[in-house]
């Protein structure tokens, strides 16, 4: 008579398998883990939240969709005030704050420059071997007239509105839209009563609470390799987000064999050069971690580290060394407490 009881006790003492959700979105994929019993009704509620947020992001923020709100705004040449959705307004406002905070190293008005360097929205990615002709100084000078976060005006009353006060301005929020969607899904999961979960979209990660077996979530930062996926270092993440920006999976090669990063400095119009190959940033919110990582790639290790130290931002800069496959890691003081 004791055998069934023993069996029953061993089943109940096991940690229930967490709910797992995955699928395509924003030209990439999402992976979401929610610890819990995983009842059918719970699964449906979580999947419904995920689908709603991702559809909302696609409708309002996707430069890959010609019918999205941001694509329609980009086509408008009137310089008039336009009412915008709460989703787009929040993203534009956060982008403006980061632009000011980083002295223009992050700027969502770089669309014309991206096009000149061959990175149009919806274009092919990962085309490291694609030969192309880099833009001339005259072409860059002309495009830069349409670039500058200060040329995009925002107002929140009587309704959220924006105005482009220069011709040819094109916005791209691809650098922060995944982070925004991660934060929105996190907020919705908390509203459903989930205290622990991990949300990842295209490498942007936010972790809340703890793993099913206890303790902080464990995240691996990838080595900056174009063709392989190898862990470089581990993080312990709890109630925080992490984002990595790098130049190692998408670049252009000109006919002379010169390599051009896909990271463009909005202040010069030129692609970023040097040994820095990736930056990882930790923040309370994924949208900010996403934008900061891009900005620090533009700043470079020396200026980026000084900025991160001053503002106590956890960041690690990964530089290429003369020997292939070996990296130099430069960490801000605030980053060390998150290391595995």
Kindly list the characteristics that best describe this protein.
340 residues, alpha+beta, three-stranded antiparallel sheet, 9 helices, globular, disordered N terminus
Number of strands: 16
Strand content: 15-25%
User: Major sheet, described briefly?
Assistant: 8 strands, antiparallel
- The first-to-last residue Cα distance is 47 Å
From the alpha carbons, calculate the radius of gyration and give it in angstroms.
22 Å
Q: What is the count of DSSP helices, taking H or I runs of 4+ residues?
A: 9
Helix content: 25-40%
Secondary-structure element order, N to C? HEEHHEHHEHEEHEEEEEEEEHHEE
Alpha-beta classification: alpha+beta
Low-confidence stretches: 1-13, 124-129
Q: Mean pLDDT, rounded to whole units? A: 89
Strand order of the largest sheet: 1-2-7-8-11-14-15-16
**Shape, principal axes of CA atoms:** globular
What does this structure look like?
- This protein is an alpha+beta fold and 340 residues long.
- It has nine helices and 16 strands.
- It has helices spanning 2-13, 40-61, 69-75, 86-101, 111-116, 137-144, 177-191, 286-299, 301-311, and strands at residues 19-25, 28-34, 82-83, 131-132, 152-155, 161-164, 197-201, 204-208, 217-222, 231-237, 240-246, 251-254, 259-261, 276-283, 315-320, 327-331.
- An eight-stranded antiparallel sheet has the order 1-2-7-8-11-14-15-16.
- A hairpin with a 4-residue loop joins β12 (251-254) and β13 (259-261).
- α4 (86-101) runs parallel beside α8, α7 runs antiparallel to α8 (286-299) and α8 (286-299) crosses α9 (301-311).
- The termini are far apart.
- The model is unreliable at 1-13 and 124-129 (pLDDT under 50).
